[in-house]
Amino acid sequence: MAKKTKKVDTQRIEKAVREILLAVGEDVDREGLKDTPARVARMYVELLRGMREDPNVHLKSVFTEKYDEIVLLRDIPFYSLCEHHMLPFIGTANVAYVPVEKVLGVSKLARVVDCYAGRLQTQERLAYQIADFIMTNLKPMGVAVVLEASHSCMTIRGVKKPGSVMVTSALRGIFRKDPRSRNEVLSLIRDGK
């Protein structure tokens, strides 16, 4: 779990950005760059908001419901920063679970995704964190998380393969153990595409 910090040191970020601009040969005093260090600092505060958020706050909207079929929220847009290059990866999350008398408010599923995505991440870890959070806190029969994302670190630099999409999954409980349940949830996710 990411260390919770109270406040981001924006002045330190500004100084570092200024140094980067100088290191690449820019004139940090020219009009277009004068406010760039402050803008970049504010951007990091926004993009890494999940480091200062506790996903447990979203558990206030748990309801008792006698429902034991798949609950799926599909195509939740998300963006995160790859911890290897600090470039964004952008995609969609599909989150499903089979409740045992506890359902989470639908918007809270999206908020949990946002909370974990708002950290320096790998896509694999992000899928696991979302699945484990739901499994631990709702104690459903199973959880399935499928993420699809395009990674800037390979589309605009390095191998430069725009249009490529990485897919990761995290399956827990019945979706991991029972092939019929796994096929059903994956079919529901695929059929929406």
Number of strands: 7
Overall shape: elongated
- Low-confidence parts, pLDDT < 50 over ≥5 residues? none
Helix content: 25-40%
Percentage of residues in strands: 25-35%
Could you give the distance between the termini? 32 Å
Mean pLDDT: 95
The run of helices and strands is HHEEEEHEHEHEHH
The SS-based structural class is alpha+beta
- Number of H- or I-type helical stretches: 7
What is the topology, as strand order, of the major beta sheet? Answer: 5-2-3-6-7
**Major pleated sheet:** 5 strands, mixed
Rg value: 19 Å
Walk me through this protein's architecture.
- By secondary structure, this protein is of the alpha+beta class.
- Helix content is 39%, strand content 25%.
- The chain has seven helices and seven strands.
- The strands form two sheets. A five-stranded mixed beta sheet has the order 5-2-3-6-7, sandwiched between helices.
- The longest helix has 16 residues, at 123-138.
- It is elongated.
Topology (elements, then pairings):
Layout: H1 10-23, H2 36-47, E1 62-64, E2 71-82, E3 88-98, E4 102-104, H3 106-117, E5 120-121, H4 123-138, E6 142-151, H5 152-155, E7 166-173, H6 174-177, H7 179-191
Parallel strand pairs: 2-5
Antiparallel strand pairs: 1-4, 2-3, 3-6, 6-7
Tags for this model:
193 residues; alpha+beta; five-stranded mixed sheet; 25% strand; elongated
